């Protein structure tokens, strides 16, 4: 499986001069987790909703995205194996990987997408997962439940 198979294609790019409050409102209205900050040469970094301080309007007052941009961003490509992208994100605070084709931003891969894919992966073998907390079991590939 490749990054392009599960990446989010609806990524918004913004200029570093965008007021942080405007960016926060746009993120909230559109359900975005991040903006890719771009200039004429391509992506220069990202700004996440968490970086903007959640509901902390004073944090954003009189500031632009350029004040929050994280430039030490790892990126990936659409043809990268998902397992490799997951390994890159593992243990890092960066919760997403911008996906570039050349210098063009074509998507974003988030940890949430990786977890969603993992949660819906077919079970291997005969055994199914049994939750230790609630003792609910999921059926194996043949529909059998394990008790």
Automatic annotation (TrEMBL):
<dbReference type="Pfam" id="PF00571">
    <property type="entry name" value="CBS"/>
</dbReference>
<keyword id="KW-0460">Magnesium</keyword>
<comment type="similarity">
    <text>Belongs to the tRNA nucleotidyltransferase/poly(A) polymerase family.</text>
</comment>
<dbReference type="GO" id="GO:0008033">
    <property type="term" value="P:tRNA processing"/>
</dbReference>
<dbReference type="GO" id="GO:0016779">
    <property type="term" value="F:nucleotidyltransferase activity"/>
</dbReference>
<keyword id="KW-0694">RNA-binding</keyword>
<keyword id="KW-0548">Nucleotidyltransferase</keyword>
<protein>
    <submittedName>
        <fullName>Putative manganese-dependent inorganic pyrophosphatase</fullName>
    </submittedName>
</protein>
<dbReference type="InterPro" id="IPR046342">
    <property type="entry name" value="CBS_dom_sf"/>
</dbReference>
<dbReference type="InterPro" id="IPR000644">
    <property type="entry name" value="CBS_dom"/>
</dbReference>
<feature type="domain" description="CBS">
    <location>
        <begin position="72"/>
        <end position="119"/>
    </location>
</feature>
<keyword id="KW-0479">Metal-binding</keyword>
<keyword id="KW-0808">Transferase</keyword>
<keyword id="KW-0819">tRNA processing</keyword>
<dbReference type="GO" id="GO:0000166">
    <property type="term" value="F:nucleotide binding"/>
</dbReference>
<dbReference type="GO" id="GO:0046872">
    <property type="term" value="F:metal ion binding"/>
</dbReference>
<feature type="domain" description="CBS">
    <location>
        <begin position="10"/>
        <end position="57"/>
    </location>
</feature>
<keyword id="KW-0547">Nucleotide-binding</keyword>
<dbReference type="InterPro" id="IPR052390">
    <property type="entry name" value="tRNA_nt/polyA_polymerase"/>
</dbReference>
<dbReference type="GO" id="GO:0003723">
    <property type="term" value="F:RNA binding"/>
</dbReference>
């Amino acid at each position: 499986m490749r990054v392009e198979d599960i990446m989010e294609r609806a990524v918004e790019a913004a200029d570093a001069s965008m007021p942080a409050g405007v960016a926060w409102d746009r993120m909230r209205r559109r359900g975005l987790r991040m903006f890719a900050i771009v200039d004429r040469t391509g992506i220069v970094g990202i700004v996440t909703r968490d970086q903007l301080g959640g509901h902390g309007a004073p944090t954003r007052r009189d500031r632009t995205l350029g004040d929050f941009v994280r430039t030490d961003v790892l990126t990936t490509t659409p043809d990268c194996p998902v397992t490799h992208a997951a390994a890159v994100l593992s243990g890092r605070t960066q919760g997403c990987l911008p996906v570039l084709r050349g210098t063009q931003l074509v998507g974003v891969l988030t940890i949430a997408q990786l977890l969603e894919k993992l949660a819906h992966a077919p079970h291997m073998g005969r055994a199914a997962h049994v939750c230790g907390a609630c003792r609910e079991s999921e059926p194996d590939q043949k529909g059998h439940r394990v008790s």
